[in-house]
Amino acid sequence: xxxxxxxxxxxxxxxxxxxxxxxxxxxxxxxxxxxxxxxxxxxxxxxxxxxxxxxxxxxxxxxxxxxxxxxxxxxxxxxxxxxxxxxxxxxxxxxxxxxxxxxxxxxxxxxxxxxxxxxxxxxxxxxxxxxxxxxxxxxxxxxxxxxxxxxxxxxxxxxxxxxxxxxxxxxxxxxxxxxxxxxxxxxxxxxxxxxxxxxxxxxxxxxxxxxxxxxxxxxxxxxxxxxxxxxxxxxxxxxxxxxxxxxxxxxxxxxxxxxxxxxxxxxxxxxxxxxxxxxxxxxxxxxxxxxxxxxxxxxxxxxxxxxxxxxxxxxxxxxxxxxxxxxxxxxxxxxxxxxxxxxxxxxxxxxxxxxxxxxxxxxxxxxxxxxxxxxxxxxxxxxxxxxxxxxxxxxxxxxxxxxxx
Length: 405
Fold this sequence. Notes:
By secondary structure, this protein is α+β, with helices and mostly antiparallel strands. It contains 13 helices and seven strands.
C-alpha cells in the first residue's frame, strides 16, 4: 500500500494549524509567552506547508523562495519558544539566520542543484532542532526528571530529515531521485508524528513547571523568599538523611530577632517587614550554598548546616555581627537590629526535632543572657529513636521526653 506524500503533507499542515491554535489559546489563558511563540510557529509552519502542498508546483521564483523561508522562520520561532520557556530573551538574529541562509544559497545555486538545495534546507531544520534540544536540555531541574523525551524528539526530527539525504549523497551521488523520493515520503510521515509529539511534550513541560511552581509556593515564605516551616522541615529531612549516609554531623541554628514587637509598635509593620527581609538576606549571604535556611515563625528563623558544631558557631557569630552592623535609620530614629541565636550540633543521623529542641533551649539561654549573643547547647537531648525505644520498655521514662520546638 503506497502513501500519497502530498496528502500526508496536507494532513500534517492541518493538524499543525489546529495544534497551533490550541497553543495560542492556552498561551493567552495562562499568560505564557512561550506557548504563544510555539503556537505562532505552528501556525506559520502550517501555512507554509499547506501553501507549498496545494500550489508549490504553480508558484515559482521569488514567491516559492519566500514560502520556503517562512517554514525555516517557523523552525527558528520554535527554538526561540524554548529559549523563552527557559526565561531567556528571544534571539531574533539567530531566528532570521536560517531563512537568510536559505534565500542566499538558493539564489547562488539556482534551480540546477535540487539535491544540494534539499540538503541545505534539511540541514537548516536539523540545526534548529538541535538548538531546541540544547535549550531544553539546559533547562533540566531536579524537579524535572523526565527531561529526555524533550531532547530526543527534536534530535530525532533532525536525524530523520538528514538521514535519507546523506544516504543518497553517499551511495547514489548521481541519482537525484533517490534522496528526493525517500526524503519526501519519510518526512511526510515524520512531520505528522513530530507535530503531535512536540505539542504533547510542550504541555508536559508546562504542566511539570506549573506543578513545580505550586509546590515551591507551598514551601516558601512569600515575604523573605526563604523556606517556610513546612518547606524547611522537608528539605532538612533530605539533607540529614544524605549526611547520615556519609557519616557527617549536622548543626542547627535558631534565630530570634530581638525586640521585634517593639520595632513593629514603634516604626509600623511595613518597617518590621523590611527588617525581616533584611535579616533573611543577611542569613542567605552568610551561609553556604549547601546550607538550608527558613522562616519558621513570625520573627524566628532557622538554619541547617552540614558541619560540626564548632564551625556552626563561627557562622552564627558572623550572622549576628553583620545584622548588628546594619545601621538602619528611619524617620523615627535608629532601628535596633540585633538577633539572639541558639546553636546545637549532633553526630550523623541525629533527628531534626532533637537538634531543634536543643537549639531552642540554647536560644532562650541567649535571651536570658542579655540578647544579641550566640549560645551553644550544653548537651544534645536524647535521640528520639533511643527515647522511643526506652519509652516502649519503661513507661515511666515518658517524663524525660525532650521538648520539641
